[in-house]
Specification:
This is Antitoxin component HigA of HigAB toxin-antitoxin module. By secondary structure, this protein is mostly helical. The protein has seven helices and no strands.
Length: about 120
């Protein structure tokens, strides 16, 4: 039988169960807990889409957009990101504004240090 969420209160209770299962770590879950987690996440996604009207966040369509999203999520400045990548602040600024194309060093840095998907990088350079 498919698990269903019937109210916002039930949704929040379900999210707590999901977080508790996730905090155990995937390697520590039993087969029944993994199936429960799968069922609960499907139900929460359905409830979010149909009742709460939540849609997945728009995915970045360029390397600069991906970097802007990372800076937003990490709550860091361009200067901090440039330091993290081991590049100059002007170079990062120029790449973000489209005035400069990413070079091999930059591409390797965003892959190694930010873990940006290599397919995304290749599709957007």
């Amino acid at each position: 039988m498919e698990y269903q969420i019937t109210s916002e209160k039930h949704y929040h209770e379900t999210m707590i169960v999901i977080y508790d299962l996730m905090n155990k770590g995937e390697a520590n879950l039993t087969d029944s807990e993994i199936e429960k987690l799968r069922s609960l996440t499907v139900a929460t996604e359905k409830f979010e889409d149909e009742v709460l009207g939540l849609k997945p966040a728009k995915q970045p369509e360029s390397i600069p957009q991906a970097l802007e999203l990372i800076m937003f999520e990490k709550k860091i400045s361009q200067a901090k990101l440039a330091d993290e990548l081991g590049i100059g602040k002007p170079k990062l600024s120029q790449i973000l504004t489209g005035k400069r194309k990413p070079d091999v060093f930059f591409i390797k840095a965003i892959y190694n240090k930010l873990k940006i998907d290599p397919k995304f990088i290749l599709d957007h350079i």
